[in-house]
Specification:
This protein is mainly alpha-helical and about 200 residues long. The chain contains 7 helices and no strands. Helix 2 (about 35-70) packs across helix 3 (about 75-85), helix 2 packs across helix 7 (about 140-195) and helix 3 (about 75-85) packs across helix 4. It is a multi-pass membrane protein.
Length: about 200
């Protein structure tokens, strides 16, 4: 027992001495594994957030459009849309409304949101609303066009995702189910032919 502990201490000393290297400084040979799993999770989370935002924007813009068509101002329409929706888009515009309540100008807050937001669709909507406020263009027409373009973008994105999933579903069909089916259909014929020659 005593020799085992002495051997362990000696081995530790040799390993420590070798880790000092030629320079006499402690050198640790630690190989860091690439964080592939974490990177993949982050990438998937970003894709999910982008798709989720893409799905929220047409609904939020439609709420704004309905309120504007009902005769509400843009600020009141934003308040109505924020109060009746949840999610990332609603939280972005909720912050705009909070800043307006604290005394900021709606147009400036929309411009800031158009610059600072991480979502392309939110930036586009905020920028269009800020420009419409600045130039006095018709909000109902602008929002109707935006809802239509955002819905078509969502439709295109969902079709692309469905096409990728369909391709993934074809792989087991082609490489597993089809060969097994061919084997089951050909085997009785081969067995019958083999028995006829005997």
């Amino acid at each position: 027992m005593q020799w085992i502990s002495f051997g362990a201490i000696l081995l530790s000393a040799v390993i420590f001495y070798k880790s000092l290297g030629e320079t006499g400084k402690l050198r640790l040979d630690v190989k860091l594994k690439p964080r592939v799993r974490l990177t993949k999770k982050v990438r998937n989370a970003k894709k999910f957030r982008a798709l989720e935002t893409l799905m929220e924007v047409p609904d939020f813009a439609a709420l704004l459009w309905f309120a504007v068509c009902a005769g509400e101002s843009l600020e009141n329409s934003l308040r109505i849309a924020v109060s009746r929706s949840t999610g990332f888009v609603s939280s972005q515009f909720s912050q705009v409304i909070k800043n307006v309540d604290l005394g900021a100008l709606l147009q400036i807050e929309l411009q800031n949101l158009g610059v600072e937001s991480r979502s392309d669709q939110v930036r586009e909507l905020a920028t269009k609303l800020a420009v419409a406020l600045d130039h006095g263009t018709a909000l109902a027409d602008l929002l109707a066009d935006f809802v239509q373009s955002a819905s078509s973008e969502l439709r295109t994105s969902l079709l692309d995702k469905a096409a990728k999933n369909e391709t993934k579903m074809m792989i087991p069909l082609v490489f597993v189910i089809l060969p097994v089916t061919v084997m089951f259909s050909v085997y009785p014929s081969l067995a019958l032919i083999q028995n006829s020659f005997l």
